[in-house]
Amino acid sequence: MDVSNTNVQNDDIEPERPAHPAVFPSGEAGKSDHHPAGHYVDFPVSVVLPAGGTGERTGLQTPKQFCSFLGRPLISYTIQAFERVSWIQSIVVVVAKENMDLMMDITQRFQHKRVRVVSGGSTRHRSICNGVLALGEETPAAVRPKVVIIHDAVRPFVEEDFLHKIAMAAKEQGAAGAIRPLVSTVIATTSEGYLDHSLERTKYRASEMPQGFTYDVIHQAYQRCTESDFDFGTECLHLALQYCGTNAKLIEGPPTLWKVTYKRDLAAAESIIKETLSQSACLITGGLLPAVTLADALQKAAGALDMELDVIPDLMGDNARYLLKEWNFIQVSVTGSCLSEVEALLGALEAANRAPLHPLVVIWVHLSSSDELSSSGNVAEPAAIMDLASTAKLRSILLYGIQLHPSQDTECWERSVLRVAEIASALIRERSPALVGQLLQA
Fold first, then answer.
1. pLDDT of 66-93, one tens digit each?
2. 92, β-bridge pairs
3. d(CA 147, CA 192)
4. Could you tell me the CA-to-CA distances from 172 to 17, 104, 335 in Å, in that order?
């Protein structure tokens, strides 16, 4: 069958998408929030990310791996997914020569620590080969990676669980790769454009990324393959089989391995990230009774909005972990119009030096007292919060304010609390730069 005459009949309009991608990287570079049993890796593992594509199918002038959403290019999300895995020692990103400076800028701007950028070739296999050779040229043999994981730069939702399976299988078998069930019927056509035959879908699988190889296998495969392989081939597992006799272990992967291919996929990726970001927040009370009472009410209201609030008095001791793992913070203030508590929170986030994967959100909820209202009518200082928000935005932190007036009327108070929860949820979900520094009334 001529491969060029193989067509695909879609059963579904949209590709499979994860509904709740809990696998979205939530930790910082080199840190894993959880270490399930069996995730210990006692051999060196490195990653090659081919990122030299032009992204023609997206219809955009900018290659899709460099398209930005939520303030960060797509490739940075993918890199961070690997950097958060403590047992991955290095990441080689292979880009076209004309994009070397752009990729270096991304690496520096988003503080990617274990990344080396190398120039790619004219085809996918040539680029991957350059990445593999780079791992061998500058690494002493004693610490050369035992396993090399190859992954597409435009598949940002890869989880540590599955990477561990690929790495272990690659070490044992020499090669391993992800597969997924086919969601479309594959048919062959004649040269005249008529149906020739179809394949029984249940007998076949789609080859996906990531794929893993021992360094010796993938290096040897590229040393032995032909110019035709370099120019027209795309499947690394096939090279390992053909030139090294290595039969890869195939592992069914999760639906989150999908690839950003078309323009609509960029919007889908942004939607998934936004959905994940909006599911939780850390609410800081300062330990004062009025703030604790309000926090309890907000926690209940937020639950009805499908958002989980962790209520803590401060960020000291064990609570400091929230500085590294949470994306959203709500600071409740009941002590006048002073923004000192927010300034302290911003300072703590800066000191954590977490290089956030996406903009953090800080919401200042000011519960004004009756005395403050009677003396000034408007206790907050819009200019002060605006100045503070402008400075925070430079550090990828979006600061908003909500002012809540007390009420002795129970029904009125419950409506106000619900309104605060709704505003906070919307700000966290939308992460709108246009509202940064605004003081909203609840």
1. 998 777 899 999 998 898 898 999 999 9
2. 48, 116
3. 46
4. 31, 35, 61
Average pLDDT over residues 247-267: 90
CA contacts within 13 A on the Cβ side of 144? 15
* Bridge partners, residue 46, by sequence: 90, 148
Of residues 49, 119, 35, 117, the one with CA closest to residue 84: 35
Classify strands 72-73 and 68-69 as parallel, antiparallel or unpaired.
antiparallel
Decide if 79 contacts 93 (C-beta within 8 A).
yes
Q: Is the dihedral of CA 354, 358, 359, 361 positive or negative?
A: negative
Contacts of 380 (CB under 8 A, 6+ apart): 337, 366, 368, 401, 403, 439
Which pair of tokens denotes residue 375? Answer: 């003396």
Q: Which of 270, 266, 323 is nearest to 429 (CA)?
A: 270
pLDDT digit string (tens) for 371-422? Answer: 554 444 444 567 888 999 999 998 889 999 999 988 888 899 999 999 999 9
**pLDDT grade, residue 355 (50/70/90)?**
low
What are residue 206's DSSP bridge partners? 180
H-assigned helices in 308-369: 322-325, 340-352
Q: In sequence order, what are the residues at sequence separation of 6 or more whose Cβ sits closer than 8 angstroms to the Cβ of residue 99?
A: 51, 52, 63, 66
